[in-house]
Amino acid sequence: MRAVRHHTDCAWVLLYIERWLQAPVRMPDGALVKREKGTPQGSVVSPILANLFLHYTFDMWMQRQFPACPFERYAHDAIIHCDSEEQARQALDMLQQRFAECKLELSPQKTKIVYCKDANRQGNYPEQSFDFLGYTFRPREARNRSGELFVGFSPAVSVKAIKAMRSVLRRWKLPHRGDLTLEELMKWLQPVVRGWINYYGRFCPSTLHRALSMVDELVVRWARRKYKWLRMHATRAWDWLERLKSRQPALLPHWQPTAKVKR
Fold it and tell me: Cα(246)–Cα(113) distance, rounded to whole angstroms?
């Protein structure tokens, strides 16, 4: 009885997956266009379907073919760690064949071999950086436990992620919200800035703190529109912000560079 029910449940799951894959695309004018391949763009089910498919197509295949190569995959983005350029090229060639067998194609713009240059790897290679999950991985100066400088291959918030943050702040048009009090403005910004720091501040937080100067710029622009005595005085407005940060550093998370941000 249990086996029959399990079989029935699986059939329903397969039916739902089939319906999602066959669902047409609604165009801006309302017309429905039949799709012949791919998953619905922007749909909440697309990442689920991609994970189900790539678990078999990529994850299990990698474990069989390259058991000595660790890898990370998030949705359709993945990184494979190889010991040599020869191994990396072999993996890339075999992966292209594997994807072709599964009716998939690697993105030629995003797929590349990267040399992780650092203090211990001094060779040269055209590609020495890559982006993954909002971070840019590349050679950077760092300090060891003794305080000595060295070059490591490490992540920091990417330029693309910073542009996305700036786009969010612009979209809100907060400098034009003269109806907000300072406390209301801070309550609006606090959870967003805290989220950025919790995610992007885990590695090389100094890069993120420099990027978050755009939040300070927004607060200054808001203040110059809000307070008449600051409207025509940019320097005075920045002085006002510095005094505010000194008196109330807890108002925004990035005003406390040494504090550990919590959810």
Answer: 47
Do residues 257 and 209 make contact, with C-beta atoms less than 8 angstroms apart?
yes
- Strand 71-74 and strand 77-80: pairing? antiparallel
The backbone region for 142, taken as left when phi is positive above 0, alpha when psi lies in -120 to 50, beta otherwise, is: beta
For residue 229, the 8-state DSSP code is: G
Look up the pTM and report it. Answer: 0.79
Q: Mean of the pLDDT values across residues 95-123? A: 90
List, in sequence order, the alpha helices (H) in the chain. 2-22, 46-54, 60-65, 85-101, 159-172, 182-200, 205-211, 213-226, 234-247
Question: Any idea which residue has 């890069």 for tokens?
Answer: 207
Q: Which residue has the tokens 């693309």?
A: 160
pLDDT digits (tens, 9 = 90+) for 138-172: 999 888 888 888 888 999 999 999 999 999 999 99
